[in-house]
Design goal:
single chain; mainly alpha; about 80% helix; globular
């Protein structure tokens, strides 16, 4: 029983920590504004075209909707973040992805 409680507390601690990191710098913004802000950061760094920027804005908006929803299970949030990472990697070409991987702070911000 103690192990179950300890595991639950660790899970809770890590999920709270992940949510706190995601919302840093986005206080007072709704999910649409947060998504547009992250897409703009990515587009500025990689010099993406407007269509790609809009696609990433919708992806990041969805990410923030799921993260901000208190009723969504931690497992679903984790799977969604893996999906966001996969979609970023699938959308960007090799050179763009290589450049993004050289900026681990931005990559972590986008995928966590």
């Amino acid at each position: 029983m103690k192990k179950i409680i300890a595991a639950f507390m660790l899970l809770l601690a890590f999920s709270i920590n992940a949510n706190a990191q995601d919302t840093k710098g986005y206080i007072g913004l709704n999910s649409t504004e947060k998504g547009k802000k992250q897409a703009a950061e990515l587009s500025e760094y990689l010099q993406l075209d407007e269509t790609t920027n809009q696609n990433f804005a919708m992806l990041f908006e969805y990410k923030f909707q799921v993260i901000d929803d208190k009723n969504v299970a931690a497992e679903r949030k984790s799977e969604m973040l893996k999906s966001v990472d996969a979609k970023i990697r699938a959308t960007l070409d090799g050179n763009q992805m290589e450049k993004l991987e050289k900026n681990p702070e931005l990559l972590k911000k986008l995928t966590n």
